[in-house]
Specification:
Layout lengths: L1 E5 L10 E5 L9 E11 L1 H8 L15 E8 L11 E4 L2 E3 L5 H4 L10 E2 L11 E5 L3 E3 L6 H4 L5 H12 L6 E5 L3 H12 L3 E5 L3 H9 L4 E3 L9 E6 L6 H8 E9 L12 H5 L4 E4 L5 H13 L6 E5 L3 H9 L6 E5 L3
Parallel strand pairs: 10-11, 10-13, 11-12, 13-14, 14-15, 16-17
Antiparallel strand pairs: 1-2, 3-4, 3-8, 3-17, 4-5, 5-9, 6-7
Helix pairs in contact: 4-5, 4-9
Amino acid sequence: MRAWWVGQPGPIDSMPLVWGERPDPVPAPGELLVRVHMCGVCRTDLHLAEGDLMPRRPNVIPGHEAVGTVLEAGEGCTRFRPGDRVGVAWLGKSCGSCRYCLRGDENLCISPTFTGWDRDGGYAERLTVAEDFAYAIPPVFTDEQAAPLLCSGIIGYRALKRAAVPQGGRLGIYGFGGSAHLTAQIARHQGASVYVMTRSAAARSLARELGAVFVGGPYDSPPDSLDSAILFAPVGELVPAALQALDRGGTLAVAGIHLSDIPALNYQRDLFNEKQLLSVTANTREDGDEFLALAAEIPLAPTTTIYPMTAADKALKDLSTDRITGSAVLDMLR
């Protein structure tokens, strides 16, 4: 099969992704073999290629927003059959037996497996996935629309839950890329007012189109105190700015898997009055099921830019320089 993999991690201009052929994967018992149709391009893939997240295996194939068709179901599979459409997301497996899994927090599993980090992902014509961790895709979405839902959407949904926006509250969003533009739609559907702070002019325009009541630069102060905020930009320097924008008792959730260093915080200015600073770590399958059902009910309208499979390196470079509005998606059939 044709695929991209991470060779020597480094700046995206150093061409850390390698294009070539790899042996077709073979599904183990309990796994599905999937022909990938579309694969979303996530900022985590960029962090992996550049070494902010070091690959956990040599020559790993990135990609954890994959949509495709089941080619083969391994021994013991009962949920899906050949021909079914499935989605493959970031959480590839959890142990099911540690204290976190047993209490329903499998996103905190002590020995998890992640797609495109521990095991090969969707920047390839085929991949395998544990059947229990594959998702049925709501029929209302095309493959192109569904791909970014599988990480950008699910993680944004979990971040929104962690941010604890009160009914009819004011939500600040810092950074407005693939995950944020989906999260904003959910928040508005749930009755929140959305305030967007981001550096990209195109992203600011999209935020206005999606109904944000205020749109400004990343360090601009919103005109109203925020009940909650989510930081999607991987920029630690924005943490104090977001905390200062919160009202008393407000919550800031940091949605990224990687964040640059946070400057020293001033307790009185940044945290007093019971403000909360929370992180977001992966997601549970329950999060994914809840989100996909809600996304279909709304329905969400992802903004996408399509790249051919052979241009994954260009897609990551464009992502690194803010040349993508919404979500980039690789067409793995061309």
